[in-house]
Amino acid sequence: MPKLHVKKGDLVRVIAGKDKGAKGHVIATYPREDRVVVEGVNMIKKHAKETHQGPRGAKTGGVQTMEAPIHVSNVKKLKDDKPADKKPAEEKSEAKADETGEDS
């Protein structure tokens, strides 16, 4: 299975196609097809027929709006607003004082 540069939950921007410039989070990935589903991007209307019986009960018919997959090459991963889990950098002034052997 090929590896994608984005994963579910990543914030991405569409860089090509009819929704160019749109931002959204990845809802689903399809690595075998090299496609991803981005929330609010590439919206399609799907016509569903009303069913009266089925294993899960009756379904209502009508027009449903949903996201369709787009090719992974048309999206660019953006930096998340979440801060990374990194240790804070040490102050340089303290490090210099320790090296010279002086106490503050």
TrEMBL record:
GO molecular function: rRNA binding; structural constituent of ribosome
GO biological process: translation
Compositionally biased residues, Basic and acidic residues: 77-104
Keywords: Ribonucleoprotein, Ribosomal protein, RNA-binding, rRNA-binding
Protein name: Large ribosomal subunit protein uL24
Any one of the GO CC terms: ribosome
Subunit and interaction comment: Part of the 50S ribosomal subunit.
Organism: Nonomuraea longispora
Top-rank taxon, per record: Bacteria
SMART domains: KOW (SM00739)
Function: One of the proteins that surrounds the polypeptide exit tunnel on the outside of the subunit. One of two assembly initiator proteins, it binds directly to the 5'-end of the 23S rRNA, where it nucleates assembly of the 50S subunit.
Domain annotation KOW: ranges: 5-32
Pfam hit, one: ribosomal_L24
Family according to the record: Belongs to the universal ribosomal protein uL24 family.
Region (Disordered): 46-104
